[in-house]
Amino acid sequence: MDTVPAPAAPNTPTATVVPTVDAAIALQGLTFPALNAALDDYLARTDGPKAGPWERWSLIVGVAGAGLAMLLGSVLSGMAGVVATQLGLAVELLGLGTSLCLRIRREWRQFREARREHAREIEEGYTRYQQLVQQVRAFPLEQRRRRLRYIRDRRTTMHERLGLFTGGMERLGILPLLVALYLQFKDWRWGNWNAFANITLVQGALAFWILVAYALSWYLVHLRARVQAYELLLAEANAQDGA
């Protein structure tokens, strides 16, 4: 005898047909640490090849070489300052050049077949994102609404506070740093290494802290982007329930 299926409970997510892919990390609970781990797993599966240790450390060495060259060039005087600046410049060029070459090698396939690779990444990202949304929808709707209201208020507050420090960093990108370097070295000519020895301690320390502030600004922008990702994920899960 055929049985009649029981009606679905309110706010119970309906089944969604999703193409088969590798299993994603299970969402253990509707908490922000759990959402953070799920988003990390989502980005790890959709962002393409990751930078290896050589690429990451060469970039760090290059940036550190630039900062130390400016700092030591201002502290030391005479030939010692010139030698320290030359060594720092060599470390900077070697580190940044190595990082750039390794990145080009890692992303060469995306440049060679840009449209096809981009379409494939979008489709894979959409599939995995829908899987993540379905995991979020498994939790009660009212609980999701409360967390969405909280994270929206938190993002608004963070945007207002961080704007005092980062300004329009996410829109200007690397442009402020390039402008600062241009103003610093616009009168420099190749072979005129004595110009580096004339940099004062205050100038070197200021240039070093400009680099530190620039790196800190990008860190804060990245943190704000993750808060926005929480909001978008919760909003999409709630919108699908409303539909």
Rg (C-alpha, Å): 25 Å
Tell me the β content: under 5%
Largest β sheet strand count, sense and barrel closure: none
Order of helices and strands: HHHHHHHHH
Instruction: Detail the poorly predicted runs.
Output: 1-23
Report the helical percentage: over 70%
Class of secondary structure makeup: mainly alpha
Q: Kindly state the number of beta strands.
A: 0
Q: What's the overall average pLDDT, rounded?
A: 75
N/C terminus separation = 35 Å
- Report the principal-axis shape: elongated
Total helical segments: 9
Description of the structure:
This protein has 243 residues and is an all-alpha fold. It is built from 9 helices and no strands. Helix 2 (53-75) runs antiparallel to helix 3 (78-112) and helix 3 (78-112) crosses helix 4 (114-137). The longest helix has 42 residues, at 201-242. The protein is elongated, with a radius of gyration of 25 Å.
Keywords:
243 residues; mainly alpha; 9 helices; 0% strand; disordered N terminus
Topology diagram in text:
Elements: H1 32-46, H2 53-75, H3 78-112, H4 114-137, H5 141-166, H6 169-172, H7 175-185, H8 194-197, H9 201-242
Helix pairs in contact: 1-4, 2-3, 2-9, 3-4, 4-9, 5-9
Report a brief summary of the structure.
With 243 residues, the protein is mainly α.
